[in-house]
Amino acid sequence: MKLKNILIVVKDIEKSKQFYHDLFGLNPVLDNDGNLIMTEGLVLQDEKIWQEFLRKDITYKNNACELYFEEDNIEAFVEKLEKLYPDIEYVNRLMTHSWGQKVIRFYDLDGNLIEVGTAM
């Protein structure tokens, strides 16, 4: 068995598709009208479909998981983030851990937690 995808719920698939393309270079692979599979295995699911499927309320910004990306030129990534999404909400701006890894944490447009760090 192997893990195939990670699904996150979003309010506006088009805005989220643009966000993940702009910052991480992810591209659509398969669009099933409210269920968009992108490169690297990220799936964007329309909140209405997800809520109907689960029959439960969606809790955004629950801080229970994060998407983790690695970037060698993290300073350039931070510049791109600040330029393209100046109103993004940060958990922490660029910092260096005691073990030397540089990381930044922020929320996507729907409150999904993202961490970008340098390779370990």
Automatic annotation (TrEMBL):
InterPro entries: Glyas_Bleomycin-R_OHBP_Dase, Glyoxalase-like_dom, VOC_core. Pfam families: Glyoxalase_2. Residues 2-119 form the VOC domain. It comes from Gallibacter intestinalis. This is Glyoxalase.
